[in-house]
Amino acid sequence: MSSTVLVVDDEYSGRQTLESILEGEGYNIEMAENGMQAIEKAKQLLPDVILLDVMMPGMTGFEVCQHIRNDPVLAEIPIIILTALDDRESLLNALKAGADDFISKPFDRFELRARLLGITRLNRYSKLIQERAKLQEANTQLLVAYEATIEGWTHALDLRDRETEGHSRRVAELTVKLAQSYGMSEDEILHVRRGALLHDMGKIGIPDSILHKPGALTDEEWITMRKHPQFAYDMLNSVDYLQTSLDIPYCHHEKWDGTGYPRGLKKNEIPIAARLFAIVDVWDALTSDRPYRAAWSKEDALTYIRDQSGKHFDPQIVEIFLKELN
Prior knowledge:
Elements: E1 4-8, H1 12-22, E2 28-32, H2 35-45, E3 49-53, H3 61-69, E4 79-83, H4 88-97, E5 101-104, H5 109-160, H6 167-182, H7 186-197, H8 208-211, H9 219-225, H10 228-236, H11 247-251, H12 272-286, H13 298-307, H14 315-325
Parallel strand pairs: 1-2, 1-3, 3-4, 4-5
């Protein structure tokens, strides 16, 4: 995209001279005949640079420069002062007014082109930096909104299933610690945390009569209950930013020996995030009170975890988990 240059000179010959010098250099050249017109065109065009003559009737170039610098919308537009006043005082006045550069008339066309090229490059680079900063800020705000959405979903799940209130946050925190001990990167851990918080998202599709049943489920009810990982996948798979966080919601009920659900994955077929989470999920369930039973002691729960090494759980992950708890 070509840079826009606003040429401001009250004399027709001066404008034509500048146009001829810049012709063929790839600039989009706009003209203004006086200070007021220059300000209006600057507001309309937001040019990449302004070539500004000093000696003009009405507003001088110095006054135009000051006005532009005092306008928050226009203040960062680079300005090159062009003048026949070749003295130190004029140079100082140009700098005080906020000019970025100063070229005396008659000017060398090659010097003008070089000065203009340098300042447009610098301005383009500055704009790129600003745009990147804006994108980064927008991305940060978007991520904050994403995380708030996940937290909201998690809270809604807890409200629906009072007996496991706080479960999602507890298992997310412990799974993150386990992932850190395993050596996962920060990016991977971010996805693990999201997946852990959303691990029971699929239970939204399970009828309350089954989800809140105080006694044991029938075989038919278990068939329905075991659909919740697939429900989670179906609900979340279309959300782009959660694509890399689906391993836990989809696979946390798979077992190392292949007897889990919904797909009967075994050993390393099971994503590592799901293998990490599976131990934490069972640990939290065993050590928490339920309407149908009291919480297990830590010792009994650890005995069960050890017994399920190589059956339900990845043996390597069991070892890491036991070290994490000790």
